[in-house]
Design brief:
Blueprint (H helix, E strand, L loop, with lengths): L18 H17 L6 H19 L3 H8 L4 H21 L22
Length: about 120
């Protein structure tokens, strides 16, 4: 087991007492939320891939430092915040149903920059 972490070194961010458990629970919730979306959803496809990769790292080790190193996206506490934000977004995407066709056809020049005058 690794050395106990005393500080994150980031102002206002406390050390997570059990980051392995917290991340595991969050990743599980994200995956269950994604399962409710169609398999053809691009958001589901790529988010599921990232979350499964991170969950696999959790299965390999319980050491917070090693988790941080292998995932390489910040400290465990930052990974927890990322996972919480992703869970919130996944739940919103579920209500938005972003995979469904648009209600109205977008304007022809929607993706042009600078915008052309009609």
């Amino acid at each position: 087991m690794g050395v106990l972490k005393k500080t994150t070194g980031l102002v206002g961010m406390a050390v997570a007492p059990n980051p392995h458990h917290t991340l595991g629970a969050l990743y599980g919730k994200i995956l269950r939320t994604l399962q409710k979306m169609p398999e053809s959803s691009v958001y589901r496809k790529y988010t599921e891939q990232i979350v499964k990769e991170r969950a696999a790292v959790l299965k390999q080790t319980k050491d917070a430092y090693e988790i941080e190193t292998k995932i390489n996206c910040g400290q465990a506490e930052e990974l927890i915040i990322q996972a919480e934000n992703e869970l919130n977004l996944a739940r919103k995407m579920l209500t938005w149903k972003a995979w469904e066709p648009l209600v109205a056809k977008p304007p022809k020049s929607q993706w042009e920059w600078p915008p052309t005058k009609a």
